[in-house]
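Researcher: Here's the sequence for the chain we discussed earlier.
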Amino acid sequence: KQWYQRRVRGTSDEVYLSAIASWLSVLLPMLEPYLYKYGGPIIMVQVENEYGSYGCDHEYMYIMYNMFSNILGKDVVYFTTDGPGLVKCGSRPELDTLTTIDFGIGYNASKTFQKLRAYQAHGLLVNSEFYTG
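Model: Thanks. This is the structure I predict for it:
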């Protein structure tokens, strides 16, 4: 057997979801006092990273959001990020998450942010991972 087995993130993987729930139940309470709402330096919390690269299971995104918000509360700025062509699967603005995008110096920022607007009609335009080369 290989020492590493890649797991696909999604609602069909109960082992993965259980491990994430276990980890977040330890990690998030330790971070909570440092949230901006309590005067701390953590201004935003990322729910998923480039999920659009792995799948398009919207139920999974709901589960992840609920794991975070059940511990930290709904009054936190949650966000997701995806590449320009993958925002559809990673974006869940109906959950009050900020959808962000990542791109680098080879992209036209105006055109790339137009792609983001297709999934988030209002709100901030944020490149949460700018690639310098």
